[in-house]
């Protein structure tokens, strides 16, 4: 399963993102090749490294769905032409701050 996304140049910093099959949560590929719900944990990649990581992620579609590259800044912050969409995916619903991912995590800590 794939979605059509804008093409990013090779030198654009990016992370690999997908949806967790079991929970439906947005996840990001870490430098260790694992999946995290926190975009700050994601490996920031460029060029062939990003292509290779995406190819690997596509083989894991029993654990995750629809992996793709997402534009970020050099320090891993959401950026680019899809900033609003990806910010919502990274932080949670826009309905009320109480329901944001990071607020829910803090309540359970």
Q: Count up the domains.
A: 1
- Output the radius of gyration: 14 Å
Whole-number average pLDDT?
A: 81
Strand arrangement in the largest pleated sheet: 3-2-1-4
Distance between the termini: 35 Å
Helix content: 25-40%
The main pleated sheet reads as: 4 strands, antiparallel
Number of DSSP helices? 3
Task: Give keywords.
109 residues; 3 helices
Description:
There is one protein chain. With 109 residues, this protein is an alpha+beta fold. It has one domain (14-107). Helices cover 26% and strands 19% of the residues. It contains three helices and four strands; from the N terminus they run βββαβαα. It has helices at residues 47-58, 83-91, 101-107, and strands at 14-20, 26-29, 35-36, 64-71. A four-stranded antiparallel β-sheet has the order 3-2-1-4, sandwiched between helices. Strand 2 and strand 3 (35-36) form a beta hairpin.
């Amino acid at each position: 399963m794939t979605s059509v996304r804008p093409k990013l140049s090779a030198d654009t910093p990016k992370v690999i993102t997908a949806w967790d099959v079991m929970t439906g949560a947005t996840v990001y590929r870490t430098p260790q090749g694992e999946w995290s719900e926190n975009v700050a944990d994601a490996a920031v990649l460029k060029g062939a490294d990003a292509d290779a990581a995406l190819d690997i992620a596509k083989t894991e579609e029993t654990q995750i769905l629809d992996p793709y590259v997402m534009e970020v800044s050099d320090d891993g912050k959401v950026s680019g032409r899809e900033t609003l969409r990806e910010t919502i995916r990274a932080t949670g619903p826009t309905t009320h701050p109480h329901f944001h991912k990071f607020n829910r995590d803090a309540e359970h800590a």
